[in-house]
Amino acid sequence: GAGVSQSPSNKVTEKGKDVELRCDPISGHTALYWYRQSLGQGLEFLIYFQGNSAPDKSGLPSDRFSAERTGGSVSTLTIQRTQQEDSAVYLCASTLRRGRDTDTQYFGPGTRLTVL
Amino acid sequence: AQSVTQPDIHITVSEGASLELRCNYSYGATPYLFWYVQSPGQGLQLLLKYFSGDTLVQGIKGFEAEFKRSQSSFNLRKPSVHWSDAAEYFCAVGTAQGGGNKLTFGTGTQLKVEL
Questions:
Q1: B43 vs A42, A98, A107: nearest CB
Q2: How far apart are alpha carbons A42 and B23 in whole angstroms?
């Protein structure tokens, strides 16, 4: 079946602009995670969704970052007033059950964000 | 707070040679440990995972890893490397928080395979 998809695959924006990144999890997967992969910081957790709620937002780096999930499916990560340090690959992952330890997180291909 | 250390940034091996990638973790409770592989332009693919039980875990593509609690290690091994194994490898520890299982990753080891 289809895996996790993310769009766009690449996004170039100017400093100060807002961007939206989209994640389509595997159908039926209830848990969804966002991570960021950057040269300086490696792979970092950003936020976790269970259904439409986000019980763990501890990884969001600033209040310019927000995310939502609607219908227990698609999630959007929004970065307002982008800065150059936001340049990174943003990865989304989903799991079948309610964040259980034994569940594999299936990752999408990522969105490469470049802030000029 | 949890952390993962992968001391080798780059490793080069010859095709057919054995491979061991090192991973050390720091976590106060029983760890849930993972190895992921990332090929250029691709997302992360799970190679194997450890939650409990047998400390020697078998994964896909002929990989295995051994959990050693006394050494806080979870090293990845493969007896004979193939050229297609060239990629970046990430070790991760999963920590239950807020009902989820967020992953904390190491900085990765870039594997180059010489033919």
A1: A107
A2: 15
User: Helices H, strands E: what count in chain B?
Assistant: 0, 12
* Lookup result for tokens 């297609």: B84
Q: Tell me the pLDDT tens digit for each residue of A22-42.
A: 999 999 888 999 999 998 778
Closest CA to A32 of A16, A14, A46: A46
In this complex, the residue of B32, B90, B100 whose CB is nearest that of residue A56 is: B100
pLDDT tens for residues A94-109?
998 755 556 789 999 9
**Chain B 71-110, CB below 8 Å of chain A: which residues?**
90, 92, 94, 96-108
User: Which of A102 and A49 is assigned the larger pLDDT?
Assistant: A49
Query: Identity (one letter) of the amino acid at A83?
Result: Q
A15 burial level (CB within 10 Å; 0-12, 13-18, 19+): exposed
